[in-house]
Design goal:
Blueprint: E1 9-18, E2 25-29, E3 42-46, E4 53-65, E5 68-75, H1 81-85, E6 91-95, E7 116-119, E8 124-133, E9 138-144, E10 147-153, E11 159-163, E12 168-171
Parallel strand pairs: 7-12
Antiparallel strand pairs: 1-2, 1-6, 2-5, 3-4, 3-6, 4-5, 7-8, 8-9, 9-10, 11-12
């Protein structure tokens, strides 16, 4: 079954290689807390949210890797190594309503897109158009009028305030960041 409202689907993982021969698959988490995957009773599986099919989650366990925890998951309707391998590279999407609530001070990265960015002095910088996953931390892509886009590291020392209600992010840019 394809979801009716794909706007509420968030990428929570990507299918890797099969694990064993019973249909279990390694899922590379797309979240800072991979254990959130264990709380999901259902997900949507496919190359995009628009084409993803709903699948019940049958089991989740975790395996340490060089890049952090990977989830070994079994899904309804995916039986055997070949069926699991056919999904390699596909996304695992979850409805935002099915995800555990965020902790204090946490936001979904997609909620940052469209927010205005200003300095602590109140100077307008631009608008967040994308969030890139950097190797150490996310990078906010800030579109600026008449200037090239700026990449702003999403770290506490630079991003001092995120106010979703005011639709504004306040930054303390180090010298040279916006040049």
């Amino acid at each position: 079954m394809i979801p009716t409202n794909t706007d509420s689907l968030l990428l929570v993982g990507t299918f890797g290689r099969p694990h064993g021969v019973q249909g279990e698959v390694k899922v590379i988490p797309e979240t800072d807390d991979p254990e959130r995957l264990a709380a999901l009773a259902q997900v949507y599986v496919g190359p995009s949210p628009e084409t993803a099919q709903r699948r019940a989650v049958e089991s989740v366990r975790f395996q340490p890797t060089k890049r952090g925890l990977a989830a070994l998951m079994c899904f309804e309707g995916i039986a055997g190594r070949d069926a699991a391998d056919a999904l390699r590279g596909h996304g695992v999407f979850a409805d935002q309503a099915d995800l555990p609530p965020l902790g204090e001070g946490e936001v979904f990265l997609h909620d940052l897109i469209g927010l205005a960015v200003v300095t602590e002095d109140g100077e307008a910088v631009g608008t967040v158009t994308d969030v890139l996953e950097g190797t150490a931390h996310p990078l906010l892509v800030v579109q600026r009028d008449g200037k090239p886009d700026a990449l702003v590291p999403d770290v506490d020392e630079i991003v001092t305030t995120i106010d979703l209600d005011a639709e504004q992010i306040t930054i303390a840019p180090p010298e040279g960041l916006l040049d």
